[in-house]
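Title: [Solved] PBS lyase 3D structure

Original question kept below for reference.
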Amino acid sequence: MNTTQDWLARLAQKQGQSSTYEDYRRNEALEILTRLGNTGTWADVSNHSNGFVREVAVRELCRQPSPEALAVLIERLNDWVTQVRDLAAAGLQRYFSPAHTQAWLSALEPVMALAAQRRVDHSQTLSTVRKMLQSAECRDEVYADLLNRQGKAARYLFTLLLENPEDREALLRSALAHRELTVRLMAVPASAMLPAAQSLPLLLDAMSRPGGKIRVRVLYALLPLLADPKPVLREALLDVSPAVRNLALWAAPRNDVDAHAVLTERLSQPLPTAKQHWLGVIGLTTELNDTLPEHWHTAALRSAFVTVRQAAARLLRADQLPELFAALDDPSDKVFSVVIAQLDKVAWSLLIRGMTAKLDQDWHELPLTRRNAIFQLLPTWQQIGYLLGRLDTGHAGQTYWIGQIEGWCDRQYLAVDPVTPKAEREAMREKLRELTAKGLIRSGARFS
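Solution (posted by the thread starter after getting help):
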């Protein structure tokens, strides 16, 4: 600390007749640097608003090489004070050697940020960094670091290594299996540019990996390379990913593959055991507007996998009301929502009997959200008709049903019912007026 304060003192003497503002900033820097020994580090003040402080911090960090110091020096390369930039550039020179590879790898974020900064031209520095990391001495460390990276850093290292690879095929094989999705996406077109003898094994292996977004890119790259794409297309037609299936459906007629025949053949085989196989068959059935055999559909609706039951529920038609009503008891809310959406497509006249039976049996046992969803399937005035019917049974709990009727009166104006005949609506209004006259419903209730 004494060294830095002496340096500032000498600087003040050399300035000669300086302005009051410069004196103020220099004195401020001295106060800050005096406190620094007990309250922080040079890295902490390296981005201070006072240029004198930043300059001293950079000088000190140049004398104390470390990964943290390297990150600060890279950031100061874009400082708005020329002297600070020059000091940082000079201090950076000692790091341009393979011995500091790990330090550079730990400083990738500021290196990548520097590429977007334009206060001065940083291209020479960035080029030097890339060439060093691409060198044979650094390549193994950089490659090992790539395997554990994610996000922008992973993309940066992959691009860097791909420019000058020692073994392009091995690099692409690792990239196609990388945990970072964007690296895998970048590896697909790069793999397709290899000679067919190298690219085909890589891409075929990638087709078996998770990630529909990757597999659809791989399939697109594979098709022009394959001498006989039919086996790959037959498998892709039953892929779990809708994107892969849609590409396969587009390519199938262009390669003499009959998608209906592929589905028929699969349906003649034993039921799937894996979730992705179930979803592939159900997905292709949906896209071909075909029908699942009854034993397949029943097994899918009873599957242990929620997504399979959900997909199977979407295939239920209006003429399968018993199955639709049974599916309302599914423990999954996702499946329940699909069933409600399917029932909402059915004419209310076909639903009324089954809905009434369901509500009569399970009204009090159903969770509120499920009960409301089922109840809302009925037209607005059919809802009050049901509630009045429950009230007229004379059973215990009439206070409860009065409360439900009042609730309906409060919210019924929010919906339009073009279905219930006018005469039937008027008869219900009359019943509501009678309940109001008896004092069972508050006089302010809305039912007109």
